[in-house]
Write a structure and sequence with these properties.
The protein has 17 helices and 15 strands. The chain has 488 residues and is α/β, with parallel strands linked by helices. The N and C termini lie far apart (79 Å). The structure holds adenosine-5'-triphosphate (ATP) and magnesium ion (MG). Magnesium ion (MG) is lined by residues 255-256, 300, 372.
């Protein structure tokens, strides 16, 4: 019975939509009366309310965000219950996205209310405007019916539930991207080109394959989970929903690998910001505004990116040296025009600090900032203080626990007699996970597990000899406790 009412209601609603197309056949005054009376009739008999969500909206016929969210929301139940599908290849994706086919109907239950969704389409009237001609022959829309006693529930809760869930499905279906900034001379906002270019993000690193002490790893995972579930908490404490991580340690200890693992864990995009290609603080802000939520913004090797370290000191010293500098400048010939711009336009420490936690940093929400460095001691304390870089993570040399992860990944071995010897050597020798991984890597078919473990023992022994030789000669190998090895 209920279904019959819903059917009657939705049929009359469809008639309303089709009415404009009947204008060719009905005189204008009749069209008006017909529509008016049928609406009255519908309201009198039909206890059901109806929503229509068209695919394209606005003068420019943009695809409606609400339509996309509903489509994604219904795609989950559609793959299980529908008999008639539409399948499309998602943008930048190699997956088929399923949606309801024409005239397909689905029911949905929400907090005790039953709702009916259907997918419809109607032919497109040819445009009279010579400027706007569309290629489409039909226009799709979703139709929702429910009993009027659920009006408040649907308007207050159900529709936001559909939007939220639909957006979440869209995020998980999307092909994640790795962005990099384009030189500003190639930016073209007139044609709505972004200052970022991108490729699909396909790095396979995960926290399972990341070699580091387990306690440290689970601490980072817990921190990430708390961040991505913390929308309400951040709002409550009045803090922008973002978190900064500083990853520091010698080359080859897995800083970049960790960033990829973080992105895969959280299902985020990555914006890899090449700071040396950014000419000014204004450009930096523009780049930031063009990033989206659910992303990690990375600045690798922050100590090498720009001369950010001395900026504040320079400012302080400046007043004392002002006169002297001014005199020197006056004595020198003027810089050529291009060079003058370069001198003026560069990213400064205060520009970068603004980028991290100024007013603009709150736009978009749900963003993680990661800085990496081999030389943490060179960074200005203002740049990495808690609140800007909230969590400092040292990426250490390879310990036995980390080795076990690498042995499992690279050689498929979890326990072996040689492990004892390796454990002792790792306690005496500083070696990066990258070097251990290289020794364990299978380079030819005939190299078995034992050969690869023995190869690692050889590498560790020769590293130990090197260190001992260095100590005997009284020369420092540059690898004292806590010291960071120079990247040659
Ligand atoms: N902790 C680790 N866990 C798993 N693999 C690692 C780890 N550290 C290094 N590797 C391996 O070594 C290679 C180099 O690591 P990665 O590029 O992450 O080092 P990095 O710390 O970013 O070095 P750099 O400071 O030179 O940028 C990676 O491709 C990865 O295979
Ligand atoms: Mg790196």
């Amino acid at each position: 019975m209920v279904e019959n009412w819903a059917w009657l209601g939705s049929s009359l609603a469809s008639l309303m939509i089709l009415l404009p197309m009947l204008k060719m056949y009905f005189p204008h005054h009749l069209q008006f009366y017909f529509a008016w009376y049928s609406r009255k009739l519908l309201a009198f008999f039909d206890p059901y309310l109806h929503f229509t969500i068209p695919e394209f909206v606005g003068e420019r016929m943009k695809r409606s965000e609400a339509f996309c969210a509903v489509e994604a929301y219904l795609s989950a139940s559609c793959s299980q219950r529908a008999r008639n599908f539409r399948a499309e290849i998602g943008k930048d994706s190699d997956r088929l996205l399923l949606s309801m086919g024409d005239n397909e109907e689905l029911t949905d239950d929400f907090q005790g209310a039953r709702l009916w969704w259907s997918s419809r389409s109607h032919p497109v009237e040819p445009s009279r405007s010579p400027w706007y001609q569309t290629q489409q022959v039909e226009r799709r829309y979703y139709h929702l019916s429910f009993h009027k006693r659920h009006r408040e529930l649907v308007i207050d809760s159900y529709l936001s539930h559909v939007l939220r869930e639909g957006r979440a499905v869209t995020v998980s279906n999307r092909q994640r991207k790795l962005f990099t900034n384009i030189e500003s001379s190639h930016w073209d906002f007139g044609f709505k080109r972004s200052p970022w270019s991108h490729v699909p993000f396909e790095h396979p690193s995960t926290f399972d394959t990341l070699a580091m002490p387990p306690a440290k790893k689970s601490d980072i995972i817990d921190d990430l989970i708390a961040f991505c579930n913390g929308k309400d908490y951040y709002a409550k404490i009045g803090k922008a929903w973002k978190r900064g991580y500083l990853l520091y340690g010698p080359p080859g200890t897995g800083k970049s690998t960790m960033i990829a693992a973080m992105a895969n864990f959280l299902d985020y995009d990555i914006y890899d910001l090449e700071l040396t290609a950014v000419k000014s603080n204004t450009e930096l802000r523009k780049l930031f505004i063009e990033t989206t939520g659910k992303s990690i913004i990375v600045i690798e090797d922050i100590d090498c990116s720009l001369d950010l370290t001395g900026d504040r000191k320079v400012k302080k010293k400046k007043s004392a040296d002002d006169k002297e500098t001014e005199d020197k400048k006056n004595a020198q010939p003027p810089l050529p025009p291009g060079m003058e711009d370069r001198e003026k336009n560069k990213v400064t420490l205060s520009g970068l600090l603004n980028f991290i936690d100024g007013l603009w940093s709150a736009c978009g929400g749900e963003r993680i900032l990661v800085f990496t460095t081999n030389h943490v001691e060179k960074l200005d304390p203002a740049l990495i203080r808690r609140g800007r870089m909230d969590k400092h993570i040292e990426m250490p040399y390879c310990c036995f626990e980390a080795f076990k992860v690498l042995a499992k990944n690279y050689a498929d071995v979890e326990e072996h007699d040689i492990f004892g010897q390796i454990k002792e050597l790792l306690e005496e020798v500083k070696i990066t996970p990258a070097d251990v991984a290289e020794s364990l890597m299978q380079k030819s078919e005939d190299k078995g597990v034992v050969e690869r473990l023995e190869n690692l023992v050889r590498v560790l022994k020769s590293a130990k000899e090197e260190t001992e030789k260095g100590v005997a000669n009284g020369s420092c190998s540059g690898e004292e406790e806590g010291e960071i090895v120079e990247d040659n």
